[in-house]
Amino acid sequence: MKRSNMGAAVFALTLVAAACGSSATKAAPATTAKAASATTVAAAATTVAAAPAGGSDAVAKAKAAYEPFLKPPADIKQTAKLSGPVPKDKTYIFLECELPQCHEIGVGALEAAKAIGWKTEVIKWSTADLQTMLTAMDEAIAKKPVAITTTGIPQDFWADRIPKAEAAGTMIIPIAVADLKTSKTVPMGAAMGSDYKADGHLTGNWFIADSNGEGKALVVDVPAYPVLTAHGLGFKDAVAAGCKKCSVSTIEISVPQLGAGEYVPQTIAALQKDPTIKYVITTNGGFIDGLTAAMSAANIKGVKIAGGSATLNNLAALDTGTENAWAGEAIHMDGWIAIDIAARQLLGMPVTDSGGGRTQQLFIKGNVGTPAVSLDKPDDFRQRFMKLWGV
Hints:
Elements: H1 5-16, H2 39-43, H3 55-66, E1 91-96, H4 100-116, E2 119-124, H5 131-142, E3 147-149, H6 155-158, H7 162-168, E4 171-172, H8 193-210, E5 216-221, H9 226-242, E6 247-252, H10 255-259, H11 263-273, E7 279-282, H12 291-297, E8 304-307, H13 312-320, E9 325-327, H14 331-346, E10 362-363, H15 381-389
Parallel strand pairs: 1-2, 1-3, 3-4, 5-6, 5-7, 7-8, 8-9
Antiparallel strand pairs: 9-10
Helix pairs in contact: 3-8, 4-14, 8-9, 14-15
């Protein structure tokens, strides 16, 4: 299989750096990006009724859709108890890259595996050389664990390892991959496109209400990364379904442009071309570092910023009013969901899309509190999983 190593590396860097709180998330230059198709995510769009014309009706419906998510989630989305005890004589291996969010996802996965009674191991790899991820995967499979997890790397990059994993009796449970060709060996992933799309619905309805049902938004997307593109799709679906007087335009940033630092300049150019745009929606908060300063330098005023995959800096900017709405990410829970998927598959139970999905919350100035790298809500989400597992 021919692979674009640098493109996939940029993809991994994009995903796992999204919520680590760095003041800059600038990807390395690349000429191509090999990523999973967005077909499944796009096809998942729900058929909707005609949108309200706008004004008070659109605003009321939009508020009803997003305001419940201003409060911390009260429960996890997984509800079915395991059908029986999970075998304890198992080992789980997490493949951890060097970036902070990789580690944070691993924190959740490893503590969940230990809670269910499995031994755990970590094998390191580097986003600077994706061959190290494949080497780590080979090393992990050779140990014949019950399951392994990698983060942010499209399935087509590691697909030729699936037969080896199947022969070893090892499941591969990826995290932050938009699409999967599922099988006994790859039953499902956590933090799938459906999770990101649901976050896009939140920001879309917030936009409708905040703009009084008449807003004009610019979605800035990087199509090479389907798991992030899903947020933009969710946003557009919500607006199309909920507001006829609203409009959404899109600019697409290529991987070479992203690597060259063109995300913010291209956004500024689009705002200058159409001064009636008053909302910028980004699919990854880390991409927009410097946007507020750039808008000020260009004398662009009155533009609000929102989106998904927020960094700590994005969340902090809510309090200052320089940014306006962000979907939180339950990255520790992603690890728990990965273990839940593995346990259900091991017991021959059904596994739902994205393992049932992670919790959601929309952050704005009034509810952000102290920014955190992960939406660990409800506070007892770990205990809730353990109750389902009977441990």
